[in-house]
Design goal:
Oligomer: single chain
Strand order of the largest sheet: 4-1-3-2-6-7-5
Largest sheet: 7 strands, antiparallel
Distance between the termini: 84 Å
Helix content: 40-55%
Structural class: alpha+beta
Number of strands: 7
Low-confidence stretches: 7-16, 253-276
Amino acid sequence: MEGYNDYYQTGESAASSGLPFWVWIIAGTILLLLAYLIFKKIRHTVLYKNQLRLTRDWVMYRVSVPRELHATEDDQRKNFQEMLAVVEPFYANLNSIFKNAIDKKISGQDHVSLELIAKEGMIYFYVGCSRRISDTVVKNLHAQYPHAEILEDKEFSIFPNKPLQVEIINLGLIKRYFFPIKTYKNLEEDPLNAITNSLSRLQPDESLGIQLLLRPTSGMWRVSVERTAFDVQHGKSRISHSNNLLVRASESFFNFVGSSNTAMTGKEQHNEFYNPNNPHKMTPMQESQIKLLGEKAAKLGFECQVRLVSVAETSQKARQNLDNIASA
């Protein structure tokens, strides 16, 4: 009789709730996922419209740096790393256009366009931005290049009047964004030489543009860098280089299984290797990785997009020009 009452009460409870609890968990998860997707769709639409609005008030500046006197003698005493280091404060100062307002979380931050244009047998450098932040951008340029000539170009375009074929590609990172990338400090040769050599092979009726779009971000991206450094320091070498979500999820699972196995069989290892000041004996490669991650976390971060645009008589020729620049 007591068992019957328990069964009856359980059935009554299930009937009163209507559905098992796991159904409610699944339904809540689906609702949260739908809300997140709707938010991303709305944010994407607002961001797209805001960027279009910025282009209506867009201004392009052509930057020309005069050849200094005794440039040959200066070049003998100064390597290209020192010459490129001059522009690094310019990028750092661009962080001043970052706004922490709530509306910027949806509409997006103001962005700046840095472009290298080859047309009509000449190579030009351009800087583009919204007119409302143009004073800040121009002042930052003059601060690093006081002798530069910065002029507004109202007829800026690499597309000629006659119809030609246009090819566009976007460049992306092979590894995830928080991994260090090779900068000018680690290069043995000036990368601009290879790019300008490829641009010099263009025909007079061909044009090509290299565009770098960037906008400042908050410092939240450093959390992933610090977490990665922590994982390397504690011997978790299975750190995904891929941008694929499934690959990252599977490697996180194997990391968890590996750490659990180490915890279960860790008594012998604890007695032999444990050191409270050095929980994991790192290899020289891991020490180098942590050092590079620390150097990256000390820098300011930008959301960046690199585009290559080629204009030529045929689509095959335009694509070939893009491949040459991408390989350079």
